[in-house]
Amino acid sequence: MIAAATIITELFLSCAALVGLFVLQRVLLRRDPWDPINRRFLFGLRITMMLFVGRVLMIMTGIDAFRILILLAAAIIPLAVLILTEGLLRRHAPPLIKAVIGGGAVIFAVSSLWYTDTIDPARLLALLGFQLLGFVLSGWLIVARDRTSLSSNENAMVVRLGLSLILFIPLAAGDFLLLYIGLPVQFSALGVLILCWLAIGLGRPHLGHRATLLNLGVMVGAALLVGAMIGLFAGAGRDGYLLTIAVIMAALFVVAILTDVRVLQLEEQSLGLLRHLATAKTDDPMTFLRDLQNHPLVEGAVVVSEDSLKDLQDEVLAQIFAAAPVLRRVDPPQLGAVADDHIAYLFSRYSATHVMLAMAQPRVLVALSMPSLNASPSAELELQVVQRMAVLMAGGKGDRHARPTR
Fold this sequence. Notes:
- The protein is mainly α and 406 residues long.
- It has 15 helices and 4 strands.
- Strands 1-4-3-2 form a 4-stranded antiparallel sheet, with helices on both faces.
- It is elongated, with a radius of gyration of 30 Å.
């Protein structure tokens, strides 16, 4: 029973790590695949993906030749970490460190072609020592860095890489010493998932280190607690406890990674109106508003011309939009009974949740329906910016067409 559970857990952990790596790769490619830091990061990600692909193929097929992928990736990972560290610190490592890590990577990469275990455990122990040396040297470069030469975001990236290395060292050692210390599976996949989660979190700089570490502690603690409870109820031995905790922790981090990516996508979409402003190729307010109608956040917006407002009192409309250039149905301005009737008419006539003033003379309004679930504070603020931009465009156009006076 435990033997089958061990194989299934090993496969699950490897697949979970591949999911995290694939998601992080997509995030980096979407941001900027040619950015120097991203290119170094992508190199390391793909090398790590090769390692877990090799594990999955070995488990699924039982073919020992796939061990070449595992050994080759394990040989290059210290080099990939050093390359990324140099990029993050914006400085070269000392030549001696480069020579040691580069030379070791070449030697162990060549030895990976001998995929049988006839030269093990000597090779595995040497490879473990090489990986630990690479992680320690990269960690030393991080600790000894000149913090003043890096921005706060760059320092945050470096600190998270250092935290990942701290986690990787014992997990990597456990992978290589699996048989000697009696571990049921290789746990390095958990370190990879934590690295992916920390890296994706860099896209949300408003979350500080304290909140990130707190969230990390909560997820790890929850996995330990729930895994221990399930193991206790099931009467599992030590291996059962470790397998249960590993599966729960991997599942938690996969869900956290997918959730954070989704949040990043929603934040990017919420900035769409500002992007519309930044990329607008016209200074004509009506053209600008017609283009705005195609934006997903305000799709279906109605441009209300002055002719459509002829049944309403002009001075009352002027009073309403002087008080609130962007009318919101949930909290309209309190300007008296007549103004309340005008506001209610606008919302009812156009089935709108928001009505904003786009041009003062001639008066042009934009009525749109934004469901409350989409009406985030940032989206509300963007509507106010769009309204202000349209009014400024209209004012600028009027100034250009006005005749100069003497």
